[in-house]
C-alpha cells in the first residue's frame, strides 16, 4: 500500500469548514483512499473512502485530485466534537488489512 | 444494536502473568483484527483473522496469541514473552474482503 503523508496537527474554528490534507504521491491506480478518525481514548471510526471521484456522505466530503496524488477531507461545519486524530490511509484491495500511520490531530476551537 | 464489545475497559496485571483480552461482535462480520496503540503513536497490527479457525500474524505478533473458534469471538492473549505489554488494545471487525472496520472501545492494559 502507498504511503500517505499528513501534517501532524492543525486547528480550526468551530463552525468553519475544516480542510484536512493528505499526500499520497505513490498511490497506484487501484488503491483507495480511506479516512478514519479517533476521538481520544476511543476506537477509530470510519469516515469515508474514495478511488478517484469526489465522495460525500453525512459526515464529510472527500476531494481527490485528478492525478490522485493528494486528497482533502472536508468537514463542512466543524464542531468541538470533531476534535480527534484523523488517519488518511491508502488501501489496495486484497491486502485484507489497514495500516494506520500517526495521523493528524485536528483541534476545533470555540 | 449491532456492535463490537471489548472487555474489560481497564486491566491491571503483574509482570510475568498471561492475560486474555476479550473481543465479541454481533455484526456477522467474517474478519476480525487486533491492533496495539502506544501513546502518541498510530495503530500497529498484531493479528488478524479472515475466517473461523484461521488467523495470520500482523506486524508485531511476538508475545501474543489468538484463537478464532467462533465467528463472533477473537480473544487476544498477552503472554509473559511480550516485553512491553502496557498499551491500549483495539479490536476491530469488517465484512470479509472489506476494510470498513468497526472498532471496539478498547482495553487499556497496564502491567506493573
SSE blueprint:
The complex is a heterodimer of chains A (110) and B (112).
Chain A: E1 9-13, E2 18-23, E3 31-38, E4 45-50, E5 55-56, E6 61-64, E7 70-75, E8 84-92, E9 104-109
Chain B: E1 4-7, E2 10-13, E3 19-25, E4 31-37, E5 43-51, E6 54-57, E7 64-66, E8 76-78, E9 87-94, E10 102-103, E11 107-111
Parallel strand pairs in B: 2-11
Antiparallel strand pairs in B: 1-3, 3-8, 4-5, 4-9, 5-6, 7-8, 9-10, 9-11
Describe the protein.
With 110 residues, chain A is mainly β. Chain A is built from no helices and nine strands. In chain A, strands 1-9-8-3-4 form a five-stranded mixed sheet, with no helix packed on it. Chain A has a four-stranded antiparallel sheet with strand order 2-7-6-5, with no helix packed on it. In chain A, a hairpin with a 4-residue loop joins β5 (55-56) and β6. Chain A is globular, with a radius of gyration of 13 Å. Chain A starts with 8 loop residues before the first strand and ends with a strand. The mean pLDDT of chain A is 93. Chain B has 112 residues and is mainly β. Chain B is 0% helix and 50% strand. Chain B has no helices and eleven strands. Chain B has strands at 4-7, 10-13, 19-25, 31-37, 43-51, 54-57, 64-66, 76-78, 87-94, 102-103, 107-111. In chain B, the strands form two sheets. In chain B, strands 2, 4, 5, 6, 9, 10 and 11 form a seven-stranded mixed sheet that branches. A four-stranded antiparallel sheet of chain B has the order 1-3-8-7, with no helix packed on it. Chain B is globular and about 35 Å long. Chain B starts with a strand and ends with a strand. At the A-B interface, β4 of A face β4, β5, β9 and β10 of B.
Amino acid at each position: 500500500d502507498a504511503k500517505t503523508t499528513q501534517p501532524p496537527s492543525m486547528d480550526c474554528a468551530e463552525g468553519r469548514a475544516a480542510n484536512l490534507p493528505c499526500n499520497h504521491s505513490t498511490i497506484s491506480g487501484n488503491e483507495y483512499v480511506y479516512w478514519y478518525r479517533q476521538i481520544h481514548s476511543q476506537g477509530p471510526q470510519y469516515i469515508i473512502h474514495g478511488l478517484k471521484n469526489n465522495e460525500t456522505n453525512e459526515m464529510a466530503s472527500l476531494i481527490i485530485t485528478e492525478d490522485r496524488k493528494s486528497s482533502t477531507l472536508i468537514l463542512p461545519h466543524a464542531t468541538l466534537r470533531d476534535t480527534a486524530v484523523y488517519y488518511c490511509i491508502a488501501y489496495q484491495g486484497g491486502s485484507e488489512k489497514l495500516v494506520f500511520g500517526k495521523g493528524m490531530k485536528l483541534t476545533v476551537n470555540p | 444494536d449491532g456492535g463490537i464489545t471489548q472487555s474489560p475497559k481497564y486491566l491491571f496485571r503483574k509482570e510475568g502473568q498471561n492475560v486474555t483480552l476479550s473481543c465479541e461482535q454481533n455484526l456477522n462480520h467474517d474478519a476480525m483484527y487486533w491492533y496495539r496503540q502506544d501513546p502518541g503513536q498510530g495503530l500497529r497490527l498484531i493479528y488478524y483473522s479472515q475466517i473461523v479457525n484461521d488467523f495470520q500474524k500482523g506486524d508485531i505478533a511476538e508475545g501474543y496469541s489468538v484463537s478464532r473458534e467462533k465467528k463472533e469471538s477473537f480473544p487476544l492473549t498477552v503472554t509473559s514473552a511480550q516485553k512491553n505489554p502496557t498499551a491500549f488494545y483495539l479490536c476491530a471487525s469488517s465484512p470479509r474482503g472489506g476494510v470498513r472496520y468497526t472498532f471496539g472501545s478498547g482495553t487499556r492494559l497496564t502491567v506493573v
